[in-house]
Each structure stands twice: as structure tokens, then as C-alpha cells.
Amino acid sequence: MNRSVTARIALVSAVCLIAALPVSAAQDPVLELTGKARKAYKNEHYKEAHDLLQQAVARIGKRITSSFVPFLPEAPEGWEIDGTETNTLSAATSSGPKRVMEAERRYIRKEDKRDVTLMIANTPELIRPYRQMAKSAAMMKPMLKQRGITLDEKAGWYIFTEQRGPDDCRIVAVHEQVVVEVDGAGQEKTAAKFIDEMKLDKLAQTASR
């Protein structure tokens, strides 16, 4: 099967998926784009239909990413927020391309200007190895201990705490489809402050939608 035929089949599949969407939902940019894409496809303007669908997918990705932002905690006492960023990109996985979403917030402690970064992402390459490590915890225990890593489980979350030095701690919390990373904290209790402020159960629900 040549590339143009394969691309045509993929486009047909996408159009079939959006065909079920209600086109009367005005003012919604995604529905407006998919409606235009359907019309372009019917008129055999395939490149235009493809471009419109790509724009719709990008907007959906931004909505998913923005859904992570409310879960970024406010600054703990003595800290202030130094910036919030979101990012959406396409990553290759074993099951095909996946839309990867990241939301990141930086914090600065007023007294000594220490900076901490907290990231929420649905990146498979981050989630998979940590979950595999957790499921093999009994076998991996000596290696984890040697690296200064402790592992806890809380309501379906695997929480890795790594004390990489006397003043360098990182916490990684992993669920089935989302990962949270706190990096740059000096001590475990400092990193834990940020995790404790998060509603991890609701974040897991949001990531699975």
C-alpha cells in the first residue's frame, strides 16, 4: 500500500470519528475546525481537511494540558511562584504516536533563593520505567537502597523519594497515566510539602479521561 493511500485511509478514519460530533455546538473552536474539516473532505480537499484536523487535535491537546494546571500547587509558606509553563508535543510510542502533555511550575524560597520545579506529565517514557521498577520492588530493593531511593504506595500511586546528596532531594509520584516530579528540593520534608498540597486522586482521574 503506497503512502498516499495510507494517508487517505487515516484521513477517512479521522473524518468518521468527527462525524459523530454535534456540528451545531457553535463558538467551540474544536467543533468549528472539525466541521470545516468534514466539509473540506467531502469536497475532496484532502490537504485542507488534514490541516484543519491537525489544528483541532492541537487545541484538544492544549485543553488536556490546561487541565493539569489546576493541580499545580500554590507556593508553600515561605515560597513564591516563579513561573508556570505548559507544553504539548507528539511522541512516538510502541503503540503509535501519542500526544504528550506537560505542565510545569517553578518556585523560589525567599530566604535563600533555592528553586524547586514541579512537573505534571503523561509522558509514557517517564511513567513506564518507574511503574516497572515499582512492580519489581522486591527484586530491585538492594539497588534502590544503594541509590538512596525509598518507595511508598498510596492509593494507586507509587512514590519514589531519592536523596541524591546532603542537600538534593527529588520525589517522583507515578500513577497509571500520569507522573509528578518535584526536583531541586534540598530535603525530603521540603519536597514532600509540594506533594502534600496536591490532590493526587483527582489528578489521576483527570489524566485517565
Automatic annotation (TrEMBL):
Signal peptide residue numbers: 1-25
Entry keywords, A to Z: Signal
Protein name: Uncharacterized protein
Lineage: Bacteria, Pseudomonadati, Kiritimatiellota, Kiritimatiellia, Kiritimatiellales
